[in-house]
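Weekly puzzle thread! Below is a chain. First person to post its structure in C-alpha cell form gets bragging rights.
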Amino acid sequence: KNTRMEKPSKEIASRKRQVTRKLQSAIEKTKKTFNKAPREQKKKAMNRRKRDDLGDEEITSNDSNDEEEKKAPVDDFFIEDEDDENEDEKKTRLAKELLSKINQDIDEEKMEDDEEDEFLKGLKSQHNIDRDELLTSVLKRRATDVRGKLHHSIADKFDIKGCTTTFIKGHKKAITDFVFTKDESKIYSVSKDCCILEWNLNDNTKVVFNKGKKHDRTLKDGGHFDEILACDLSRDQKLLATGGKDRILRVWRTDTRKLAAKFKGHVDTITSVKFDNENDNLYSVSSDMTLKIWNMREM
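Winning reply:
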C-alpha cells in the first residue's frame, strides 16, 4: 500500500514543479516585454484603464486616433505611472526637449542673454551656415557655459575713459591673491615668493609686510616657508589671514605687522581663506577636501 501511494505523490510533485517553472518563465517574458514597451503604449493603456474605471464619464485624450485606442487590447502590465521609464527612454526624452527648446529660441530670437543674442546674430550673418550647423553651435555654446568654461566678453561694458594705469613692481614671483582695504587706500598682496606686501595707493609705494623664505622653517618672525596662495582682511581691518602650500593658517595684526596666531590642522595646501562679517570666525578651504572654521575670539 505504501508503495502504491508514493508513486502518485511523486508524480504530483513533479507536475507542480513543471507548472511553477512555466509560470516563472511566462512572468519573466512578460516583464521583458513591459520594459521594452514604448511610452506611447503605456499612455494608451493608462487612458484605457481610466476610461473603464470611470464608466460613462468623458476622458479627454491628447491622441487624435481615439477610435483605434478603444479597439486596441489592454495589457495590465503596461498600466504604470508615466514617470516609469528606463534610462534610455529618459535620455531620449530629455534630448528631444532640449533640442525643441533651442529650436524655439532660435525661431523666436529669444536667447538666454544678450551675449547669446549677439552670438546668434553673428551665426546668422554667415550665408553658408545651415539649420543643423546653427543648432549645433548654440548647443555647444550652452554646454560649454554649463561646464563653466565659456569666456564672456565684459571689457566693453565698463567705462574706463579717463582712467590711468600704474604699474608697481615688488614681488619676485607670481601674485596669487590680494585684498583691498575698505577705503581702497591700501592693498595687501601675497605671492609664490612667500612674501606679503602692503601697497599704499595714495603715493604708489610698498612696504614689505612679511618676508618669508621657501623651505626655511627657522624664520623667527613666523613667515611662510612655502608659496602663499590666499589672503583676506577682517571686517575691522585689524587682522590679515594668509594660507598656502605650507598648510599653516597664519593671522597677522595689520597695525604692527606681527604674527598674531598660527592654526595647524590641514594636511594639504590651503587654497582659500575668508573672515565672516562679525569677525568671530575664520574659514579655510584646503586641497585635503576639508573646510575648517577657526574661532577668532579664542585666539
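Puzzle host: Confirmed. Bonus trivia for everyone else. The radius of gyration is 36 Å.
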